[in-house]
Amino acid sequence: VDPSVSDISVSAATLLGLATLFVSWVLYDFLWTSPLSKNTKFCNLLCLLYIAGLSYGLTQYLSGRAAFIHIGSMFGTLMVVNVWMRILPAQREMIAATKEGRTPDYSLGKKAKQRSVHNNYITFPVLFIMLSNHFPSTYGHSLNWVTLLGLMLAGAGVRHFMNVRNQFSGLVLASSILIFFGMFFMTA
Fold first, then answer.
1. How far apart are CA 138 and CA 188, in angstroms?
2. CB contact at 8 A, 168 and 122
3. CA 89 to CA 107: how far, in whole Å?
């Protein structure tokens, strides 16, 4: 907690952090298991808006550094719960069906792959957030929530470049470099 940001108590900040983890998982899982998940671009936009809103909200009650840590913890939690509640159970069910001679439900594999792709794109934003804690210019900036959002987009952009580097490499490389350097100069 930072008294210059808000007068939130340590216990309230703790509850806010725990609620962030729980509510984020529930909303995320509901969205990606709902019929809306068929429209990936729309769901990605909703997730981005949620993350932007949450980043802004946390920076209004917690220190910038704590808000960054909470967002990183939320992403880490989503990744772990994706593996334990969506990816591994689907894999186990498909393996069991194959062993029993039944035709596996391939939609389980498709849903598990979707969560695996999400985890793939979350990896670099989490790393960038972890590294940002060593650079006070990121979390100490007056627009720290914008910086946080930029770090997440830059991380996902770099990850995307790595995923598709053998396709449109020149265009993707150029845009990834622009995003990265844009973030560098924004936080300098």
1. 8
2. no
3. 13
Long-range contacts of 33-38 (CB under 8 A, 24+ apart): 33/111, 37/114
Token pair belonging to 36: 């809306």
Q: What is the DSSP string of 113-159?
A: HHHHHHHHHHHHHHHHHHHHTT-HHHHTSTTHHHHHHHHHHHHHHHH
Encoded amino acid at 55, one letter: S
Q: Determine contact, residues 137/187, Cβ cutoff 8 Å.
A: yes
Rounded to whole angstroms, how far apart are CA atoms 12 and 142? 23
CB neighbour list of residue 3: distance below 8 Å, 6 or more residues apart: none
Q: Say what the pLDDT of residue 141 is.
A: 84
List pLDDT tens digits, range 109-167. 999 999 999 999 999 899 888 888 888 888 988 889 998 998 888 888 888 878 876 66
CB neighbourhood size of 12 (10 A): 13
Positive or negative torsion for Cα 135, 136, 140, 141: negative
Q: What is the DSSP string of 152-180?
A: HHHHHHHHHHHHHTTSSHHHHHHHHHHHH
Q: Which two tokens stand for residue 81?
A: 């719960």
